[in-house]
Amino acid sequence: MAERFAVGAVLPAASFPITRKDLVRYAGASGDFNDIHWNGRFAVEVGLPDVIAHGMYTMAVAGRVLTDWAGDPAAVQEYYVRFSRPVAVPDDGVGALVEVTGKVTKALDGGRVQVDLTVLSAGQKVLGKASAVVRVS
């Protein structure tokens, strides 16, 4: 197995900005127009810090680190996350930043590896237990 897929190998870190415009685009593509993803007043009224990114959008953004590293999106055979904390996206022209790091943690049978991701926004873990099985052969 190539060294870049060896246990302990670190995936290239990446940062992804998320703006309100991104949320509008995702809402249109997914059909999820829940007010918490676009209406700041409503989001605060229901106890959120601000408008929040869709959980599946956050998961997809983090998954880009896996697909870029693997070189083939089809190589990602399994992908799991636990939504730990919402990504608040302020309406300040900057938005939020999601930072993703990853590491190969286990060699599996069939030319596959387990990769664990750390996904942060504003210094807080937003996806817990983020893990994937990636085919490398």
Automatic annotation (TrEMBL):
<dbReference type="InterPro" id="IPR029069">
    <property type="entry name" value="HotDog_dom_sf"/>
</dbReference>
<feature type="domain" description="MaoC-like">
    <location>
        <begin position="14"/>
        <end position="107"/>
    </location>
</feature>
<comment type="similarity">
    <text>Belongs to the enoyl-CoA hydratase/isomerase family.</text>
</comment>
<dbReference type="GO" id="GO:0006633">
    <property type="term" value="P:fatty acid biosynthetic process"/>
</dbReference>
<dbReference type="InterPro" id="IPR003965">
    <property type="entry name" value="Fatty_acid_synthase"/>
</dbReference>
<dbReference type="InterPro" id="IPR002539">
    <property type="entry name" value="MaoC-like_dom"/>
</dbReference>
<dbReference type="Pfam" id="PF01575">
    <property type="entry name" value="MaoC_dehydratas"/>
</dbReference>
<dbReference type="GO" id="GO:0004312">
    <property type="term" value="F:fatty acid synthase activity"/>
</dbReference>
<protein>
    <submittedName>
        <fullName>MaoC family dehydratase</fullName>
    </submittedName>
</protein>
<dbReference type="GO" id="GO:0005835">
    <property type="term" value="C:fatty acid synthase complex"/>
</dbReference>
